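Internal ticket #5521
Category: modeling
Description: The requester needs a full-assembly model to guide mutagenesis choices. All entity lines are attached below as received. Residue total reported by intake: 332.
Assigned to: D.W.
Attached entities:
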Amino acid sequence: MIPLQLAALLMVGLAGTTVVLMRDPLRMTILNAVYALTLTILFLVFQAPDVALSMLVVGGIAYPIVLLAAIARVRSGGDE
Amino acid sequence: MNRRARIAVFAVAAAGLAALLVASVVDLPAFGHYQGAYGNQLNREAVAERHTTNVVTATVFDYRGFDTLGEEFILFAAVVGVTLLLRRHKDSEDHQEVLRKADDDRVRSDAIRIVGLLAMPALFLLGLWLVAFGLVTPGGGFQGGVLLAGSLFVVFLAAGFRPYAHLTPAHWADSAEGSGAAAFTLLGLGPLLAGAAYLHNFLGSGVRGTLESGGSMTLLNWATAVEVTAAMVLLFSEFLESYVLPSVRPLQ
């Protein structure tokens, strides 16, 4: 394992832990997007650029948008 | 169940999980020693056989094309489900209310509008590039499609809901999503009717390393891009309507 790969793995572990420890859903969504970014870097470092691109668009665009809209809806009282 | 009992149950489960994890990690192949024969074989042969320099896309649209058909329909079914649950009728009072509230919510900051105006076409172009060169370099219909939809979402971020809704009319997104999924299916079934194998590449392999490579995989790639873009746009639209007007029940 080269140092770059080790650093990428450690970053994923660190970012993943912060997502779990954060209790506020809004901040958690942002941290989760950062976590997705570290995974993107991990896949890139391990020479899987296609997977990295998929991770980037899903974790950076699609998933946070859906989560944020859902959080906004729940916070404003939902179906009442 | 009191706290002590819960912790006792958790301790047993955690010990079991830890044992299984350790057992599986010990049995992993050594780091860097990939053992999948199929992957190595594809890496050796795909470029010569299919003339696509991106082996991943050749795997997705050719060697494992049937799996991708299933994935297309997983996405299709998921988005149809979201639409059924969340969509308000376009002439309904709710929908008019969404548009009225959206006007109050529009973006007024010049800085955000200008950054959005600059970012949107750049992201759109990058999305098209990812799709177009999916068979040559990393990327493809799925990644490019999500990015294309994301670039349209920038319109919401930088301008507001009404311009976004204006740019992505629901009837266009609906038919694009269906057409993309249908095109993928027909490109697979067409060769069957002509007596060839399912997803048979009827356009030949083309020239290696150019946009002409991959033959009918190019069509599958663009069909996927259309479906994914439309699916994401629909998903964003339905969730955004719920964001703009959260207090009304979508199903009446």
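Resolution: model delivered.
Comment from assignee: DSSP finds ten helices and no strands in chain B.
Ticket closed.
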